[in-house]
Amino acid sequence: MRSSLIISAFLIVFCLQSFAKAGAPISPLVAPGTVSANSATLVWHKPEVYSDVVRYHVILNGKEIGVSTKTNYTLKNLSPLKTYTCSIKAENKLGELSAGSTILKFTTKATGKTLTVTEFGAKGDGTTVNTVSIQKAIDACPKGGTVRIPKGIFLSGALFLKSNMTLEIAKDGVLKGSGDTADYMPFINNRFEGWEMKTYASLLNAGVMNNKGGFAVEQLAIKGEGTISGGGGALGKAMIDQNGIRSRGRLICLMNCKDVEIQGLTIKDSPCWTIHYIYSKGISCHDLNISSTARNGDGLDPDSSDDSYIFNCTFSTGDDCIAIKSGKNPEGYTIAKPTRNVNISNCEFTRGHGISIGSEMSGGVSDVLVQDCTAGALLHGMQIKGTKDRGGYVKNVTVADCQLLKITIFSAVNYNNDGAAAPEPPVFENFVFRNIDLSKAQTKEPVININGFKAEGHKLKNVVFEGIKLPASAEIQVNDALGVKFKDIVADNGDKPKYAVQNSENVQYQAK
């Protein structure tokens, strides 16, 4: 009897210890720009120890209102102009709940007026160019109001959005970009491949670019269950033919914007990059289906911007799925506006070149988290890339709990290398890759290929790989690095991978 009691007591203590280790979710917040009259979206980080966490419970005004297996949740059916408090609890494998996270408090907005573009003469017949009619609706939209694209195909050229409004694309509604380059004139100040320059306008534009700071547009939402579709590669080619490859507009371009939500839509067929935001802060992109086939058809490009939240999105692109940027060579280095605090979670990447940082990163990139993502056969997988001419830095990057097919860190790329060099090579440092499933990777090339810069003081520095699953016969390459640690690296057949280490110091691994 006593033995049974001792065992039971041990099990209770063990369970309590395991539960205690899970802890409460960390740093919950209302995602920037997501509060409306009737909804708001919450995001949070996992507890410090989360291996036994199975889901999260959302507590609103003291009552549980939903659960999520992801680190985000959208509150719906809220009342306008009402203040809410909420917190998040983690549930472990035993069904026990953690203490609540820190409490969030927010107030919903007033219900705004909705203007439907057909009231302004727009026709959803797929042939009428509705630029003037839709822009009239945008200009007439009162503060807190919504411009609605209803069912139908509404053809348009460049449109210019403003603060404190929502552009809603309804279910079965399509905002379709014209294929005529004249519909994206006159040229606007923009940034492309790291340099400020004039380009065609995009289909959707918000703000005015200013590297000195300030925000031109705030509290903007672009959302709905419909589709935004551009002129695709054909429009891109026409722009290139008329004014060169760097003249192309984007599909959605935000410049000096703050607190913007892009949500729910299918976004496709850009002539160039799909969603690009520059010198902005507080951008939430979630529950999107982004696809492109155009040349340089990136999916989403945060550029010299702070506080990005990208989650629940799918990507199939003609270039990088996501490319985090901050300017190129001496110009980007001198402007010195970094991209900071990028959170990418619960996204699926089916086609494209990579989940990328760079190659234009001369203003610096820091504090990036990629978590709970799945990637297919991307050309370079999860990649951090630059050249010796870029300058700037990439630091404090964590990639965790993902299924990937390749991890690469490049210190030389064979494109976009024109122009003068920054005064010194970049710095790549403080990267963590944890709990990554690479077991389905092809082994004809190195599954992990990481490289620093050869210049003194610019080697890749302080990198940890922990809990990595590899295929049999995998190879890992490390070049020009200082302080790289491999821990719990496991191949399918139980073998250790082959390591090829050159011009590197303090690289810790267990060889075959």
Could you characterize the architecture of this molecule?
By secondary structure, this protein is mainly beta. The strands form seven sheets. The chain has a 14-stranded parallel β-sheet, with helices on one face. A hairpin with a 2-residue loop joins β15 (188-192) and β16 (195-199). The radius of gyration is 24 Å and the shape is globular. Residues 1-21 have low confidence and may be disordered.
- Which geometry do the CA atoms define? globular
Radius of gyration: 24 Å
Q: Give the helix proportion (percent range).
A: under 10%
Distance between the termini: 50 Å
Tally of helical segments: 4
Structural class: mainly beta
Quick rundown:
With 512 residues, this protein is mainly β.
Entry keywords:
14-stranded parallel sheet, 10% helix, mainly beta
Set down the secondary structure blueprint.
Elements: H1 2-22, E1 26-30, E2 40-45, E3 53-60, E4 63-68, E5 72-75, E6 83-92, E7 104-107, E8 114-116, E9 125-129, H2 131-140, E10 145-149, E11 152-156, E12 159-161, E13 165-169, E14 173-177, E15 188-192, E16 195-199, E17 204-206, E18 217-224, E19 227-229, H3 232-243, E20 252-255, E21 257-263, E22 266-268, E23 275-278, E24 281-286, E25 289-291, E26 300-303, E27 306-311, E28 314-316, E29 322-324, H4 329-335, E30 339-345, E31 348-351, E32 355-357, E33 365-371, E34 374-375, E35 382-385, E36 393-403, E37 407-410, E38 427-437, E39 448-451, E40 460-470, E41 475-479, E42 481-491, E43 498-502, E44 505-508
Parallel strand pairs: 8-10, 9-11, 10-13, 11-14, 12-17, 13-18, 14-19, 17-20, 18-21, 19-22, 20-23, 21-24, 22-25, 23-26, 24-27, 25-28, 27-30, 28-31, 29-32, 30-33, 31-34, 32-35, 33-36, 35-37, 36-38, 37-39, 38-40, 39-41, 40-42, 41-43, 42-44
Antiparallel strand pairs: 1-2, 2-5, 3-4, 3-6, 6-7, 15-16
